[in-house]
Specification:
This protein is an alpha/beta fold. It has eight helices and eleven strands. Strand 10, helix 7 and strand 11 form a beta-alpha-beta unit. Helix 1 runs parallel beside helix 8, helix 3 packs across helix 4 and helix 5 packs across helix 6. It is globular and about 50 Å long. It starts with a strand and ends in a 5-residue tail after the last helix. The relative contact order is 0.16.
């Protein structure tokens, strides 16, 4: 199991320089990845500063040399897929082939979507997610793309450069239930970001394994609080354990979480 840090870019951590410093701290401590929440506002915390996850990812890429990094997860229903294709390739270049694209439906907690006029219906967001992934992966290939879908269109364009990583930038898909449609979506790509108990995770992976005819090379990135033992999740099939920094933390508090988790987890036979 590889170990990562999961940073909330809010409050003091809304400064990309602070996030970059924390990422460098995590890398020095021996972590394998640094991932960030992707939100544009937190309505349940009025006035809370928020950093753009993609700018934060660029700062993290520039401040580190070995860790995997990226958003966990970006709601593609509120993004233009051609922009995501461009930005993700630039981040993959900047990091020398270390970027991971985490994707999902997002949620409307506190009215985060509806307050900005975004799509609120989960089924509609799922359709936007699927078509966005189709466009993004086609554009990454570098050839001429023709796409006419219900939401997006590409008329004979090619996007270069291609990603550094071959065959493509890894895509990890959010999964939160045993419903087969989201698990089928995850199975088409390179990993999942589950929110589940260990027992439910094991059941999820059984279904994903059926769709994929096995789980070879499939990453499973579970996030949990710093005081939680990841062993149950490792046994259930997790390949990544992301130590989750509390949603509202100071720079010094976040750094302490990283140092304490490293002392407890790094070098324990992971």
């Amino acid at each position: 199991m590889r170990l990562g840090v999961y940073l909330p870019p809010f409050g003091e951590l809304a400064d990309p320089r602070v996030l970059a410093d924390l990422a460098a701290t995590a890398e020095s401590a021996g972590f394998d990845g640094v991932f960030v929440w992707d939100h544009v506002v937190r309505p349940q915390h009025p006035g809370l500063p928020v950093c753009d996850a993609w700018i934060a990812s660029a700062a993290i890429a520039a401040a580190t040399r070995t860790v995997r990094f990226g958003p966990r997860v970006t709601p593609l229903s509120r993004r233009r897929p051609h922009e995501v294709a461009r930005q993700s390739v630039a981040l993959d270049q900047l990091g020398g082939g270390r970027f991971v694209l985490g994707v999902g439906l997002g949620s409307n907690n506190g009215g985060e979507l509806t307050a900005l006029g975004e799509e609120a219906d989960p089924r509609a967001r799922a359709r936007l997610l699927d078509e966005s992934l189709e466009v993004i992966t086609a554009l990454w290939q570098g050839g001429v793309v023709e796409h006419r879908g219900p939401h997006f269109r590409v008329d004979g364009l090619s996007f270069l450069p291609r990603p550094v990583q071959v065959p493509r930038i890894p895509i990890w898909v959010a999964t939160q239930s045993l419903h087969r449609a989201p698990l089928r979506r995850a199975a088409r790509f390179d990993g999942c970001c589950p929110e589940a108990s260990p027992a439910d995770l094991a059941a999820m992976l059984d279904i994903i394994g059926e769709f994929r005819s096995g789980l070879d090379g499939f990453e499973v990135a579970v996030a949990g609080t710093a005081d939680r033992d990841p062993e149950e999740y490792r046994a259930a099939g997790a390949t990544w354990w992301l130590v989750q920094v509390p949603e509202i933390s100071t720079h010094s508090q976040a750094a302490a979480v990283i140092r304490d988790a490293a002392a407890r987890l790094i070098g324990t036979g992971r």
